[in-house]
Design brief:
CATH architecture: Sandwich
Number of strands: 10
Radius of gyration: 15 Å
CATH class: Mainly Beta
Oligomer: single chain
């Protein structure tokens, strides 16, 4: 068995119950979302972010942040409820529905085009703090 990376050795046990962590505005990239931190930032010392992201308001087409990319090592999204239509560089327009998931490579240009009022996703990102760059 290979040696484990030392930066991953200082993780903590953290439990997050729905009633413990309410959804909050202003804690993510977009004002039209609300977020619920799942405690993974605390557990990993900032190496990983896992949160639930919900639509705070109906989609205003053209006001979803435009094409952009994230300076990340890893991004995974799982659609819990509703739907979301995205544009992905090299793949075009794709509508994600309840049960859909996607893994987005580092630096992939993408854009949110539309979403349902009940849209809810789980997103996992490495590292927890990262830069978003317009494309």
């Amino acid at each position: 068995m290979s040696e484990l990376d030392p930066k991953w050795q200082n993780q903590k046990f953290v439990v997050s119950h729905l009633h413990d962590k309410s959804f909050k505005s202003g804690t993510g990239l977009r004002d039209y979302n609300i977020h619920r931190d799942l405690g993974v930032i605390e557990a990993t010392g900032g190496l990983v972010k896992a949160h639930v992201v919900c639509a705070k308001e109906p989609c205003k087409k053209g006001d979803t942040g435009g094409r952009h990319k994230h300076n990340i090592n890893f991004q995974f999204v799982y659609m819990l409820k509703g739907w979301q239509t995205m544009w992905f560089e090299g793949h075009g327009v794709i509508t994600m529905k309840e049960g859909s998931s996607w893994t987005q490579p580092p630096g992939m240009v993408h854009e949110v085009l539309d979403y349902s009022d009940d849209r809810e996703v789980v997103e996992i990102i490495l590292p927890a703090k990262f830069e978003t760059v317009p494309a």
